[in-house]
Amino acid sequence: QVQLVESGGGLVQPGGSLRPSCTASGFTFSRWRMNWHRRAAGKEREMVGLILSSSDTTYLDSVKGRFTISRDNSQDPVYLQMNSPKPEDTAVYFCSVLLGGSTYWGQGTQVTVSS
To answer: What is the tens place of the pLDDT at every residue in 52-77?
Structure first.
């Protein structure tokens, strides 16, 4: 059974740092592209970035240079390093994986950026 579990969210001050993580089980983690998304209150969900099995990454323009996705394919999890977050980064952050035509999601972790 595929399971994704996010953790490490919380309250962070603007300009601080936070590192949510996504732990996966039920599939061979190292082979698959992993995605991070977020949904802010009253807004559509958007993709924050992704990381391939090669560890190549792609990011949403608004987080480039501030957020970094990383993985160690020898073990879980996938990390979302958030540096210099802004209040507009406040959202529930989710990870996802596409396997066999189905997308699996975690339950999300709340990140609140506020002074």
So the answer is: 999 999 999 999 999 999 997 766 79
